[in-house]
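Two proteins, back to back. First:
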Amino acid sequence: MGFTLLELMIVMIIVGILAALTLPSFSGSQERALGREAGATLKLISAAEKNYRMENGTGGFYGSTDVGAINQNLTLSLVEIKWDYNITTTAAPTPECTGFCFNITANRKTSNAYYAGCTYWLTYDSGISSNPENASRSHFGMCP
């Protein structure tokens, strides 16, 4: 014996409703995971910047918008699939920076208008304090 067409259609409607209910939840979970990925990568780049400064003894930090150059100079293996990474540096004190500073940004690459322009950033200022925990400021509030 088989199923009737009506029974099959009811099952397909129920499956469709369940899929429609779980898809937004999955999308939000995926974006939260990507946000955590960006935050972890920014912290990794920050640690690599501090190592670069100690190893090279230049007193300054390395800045670039080219991931290949960032990977080579900071001994990293970043991949720009979901994020564009940029590092800007300040070598002299400014109103925003009291010592040697670097600012790392991760900009979301997406065709989805809801998440376009999503940016995370982390700033390190060597003049704030001798304690590295006090010298780092990060912002993770730009993404939904």
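And the second protein:
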Amino acid sequence: MLVYSREGCHNKTNAEFKSTEMYNFYRVKYPDMKISKQKFTAICRAYNTFIMTEMVTNGVEFYLPFRMGTLSVRKYPTRPILINNNKVLVSHLPVDWVATKAYWEKNPKAREEKKLIRLSNEHTNGYRYKFYWDKRTCLTHNQTHYSFMAARQWRVALAKVLKDENITTAFYLDETKTQIN
């Protein structure tokens, strides 16, 4: 989880409790259990890997302890945004940089005009996916100051699962993104 600070970088991690503090807390709470820090770290890493693997491959929703909410992979549709004269604004879609650079090499004028090729997510039927921390049942104060950002390896793993045609995983539909105002 990230704690945003008002000073410095926007996504800087300002965690009060890191692995060393968790290990020291474990040693104080369970003095009879003799375990090395390396073993403790390996156990935590294996547990986190198991949770993330289940979320990515099987679409499991993970309930955090102490009523801190749930973690899951949510899908939401990409809708075109209409502006004046029913012109479609597509700037909210992600850029397909591989196709864009190939297009720029063939057409130098397009490079000068900075024309971009956008992803339409046809392999996912127009849905986009993200890791989502549902804080509706969270009991902590100042929830808006906390967020969950999955590590890059798990975002890449999710992309591989979505591009694989043999895997059929049902992810939750994000109701807040599907409503049209």
